[in-house]
Design goal:
4 helices; five-stranded antiparallel β-sheet; elongated; alpha+beta; 287 residues; 2 domains; Cathepsin D, subunit A, domain 1
């Protein structure tokens, strides 16, 4: 790719995100777009990667989500983010990348730089350590914020060839070719593979229900449903019993009526009181 007149390289797109794998093969990706109006300069005198203030602010927001807020970031010149404990404790360092696609790239290639490239273990007192993320804040009041800087740590992962053309002394040209280094330690990438959009890692996802908790919940509901069913069956049985008792009492009462020879009805109650029989019933008795 060819540099501009100021030896900076124009950025087409810039993002920060993750590539998902299935069985060890890239299957999908999600990259959050960062401002791409800043050109890139390569400078071995700079340690890590420098980001202009507004790009740095968005990066810090995304990194805060990735680390669940377990970090401290500085918004001062050359400020950076610090994670407590060893870098190896934070899986996001190897999972997340910066993705650069440069202008004037004839093969449509892009470059993924693992965040681990800029991670540095720093020993503290008592044998403890912290993890510095050497992605630095560039002050907006300084001329350095006019560019994104890729410094010495970048060249530990990538091998770069610069070619200068001095055919025109007044306007010399420069071009570069970037390769993944043979001694690359992380999953750096240069190529043009196209991947479908995957899950957004910067939006909290609901925790999946584990089989243990799912089976326990099912057992509780089974017991509750069985108890409710048993109560309903018992209640229906009680209603049926009451109905049969009431029906039996009605039949017994009707059968205890006895007609005497004197034309009166004798009830079977305790006082054996006699009831008067009307004329129509008397005729039936006399037949």
């Amino acid at each position: 790719m060819t540099a501009m007149s100021n030896y900076a390289y124009g950025v087409d797109t810039l993002g920060f995100g993750i590539v998902y794998e299935t069985n060890g093969v890239d299957s999908s990706e999600f990259f959050y777009g960062l401002p791409s109006e800043y050109d890139v300069i390569f400078n071995t005198n700079f340690k890590g990667m420098g980001l202009p203030a507004n790009v740095y602010a968005q990066f810090v927001t995304l990194l805060t989500i990735v680390t669940n807020g377990n970090l401290t970031c500085e918004n001062t010149v050359d400020g950076l983010c610090v994670l407590p404990g060893p870098c190896s404790e934070f899986s996001g360092l190897t999972d997340f990348d910066f993705k650069f696609k440069f202008q004037n790239e004839v093969n449509e290639n892009y470059m993924r730089i693992p965040l681990s490239t800029f991670a540095e273990k720093v020993i503290q007192g008592g044998g403890s350590s912290k993890c510095n993320i050497n992605v630095n804040y560039l002050d907006t009041t300084s001329s350095q914020s006019e560019n994104i800087i890729l410094g010495g740590m970048f060249f530990q992962e990538f091998f770069t060839v610069f070619r200068n053309d001095y055919n025109s002394v007044a306007t010399p040209d420069q071009a570069t070719q970037i390769y993944v280094g043979q001694n690359s330690m992380y999953a750096s990438y240069i190529g043009n593979e196209k991947l479908p959009t995957g899950v957004n890692p910067f939006v909290p996802q609901p925790d999946p229900v584990t089989p243990e908790s799912s089976s326990g919940l099912s057992a509780v509901w089974i017991v509750v449903i069985c108890l409710i069913a048993a109560c309903l069956v018992g209640f229906l049985a009680f209603l049926l019993y009451k109905y049969k008792v009431a029906l039996a009492q009605k039949n017994v009462r009707g059968s205890n009526v006895v007609y005497g020879t004197d034309g009166k009805v004798n009830a079977s109650d305790a006082n054996n009181s006699a009831l008067e029989v009307n004329e129509a019933e008397r005729k039936l008795i006399d037949v």
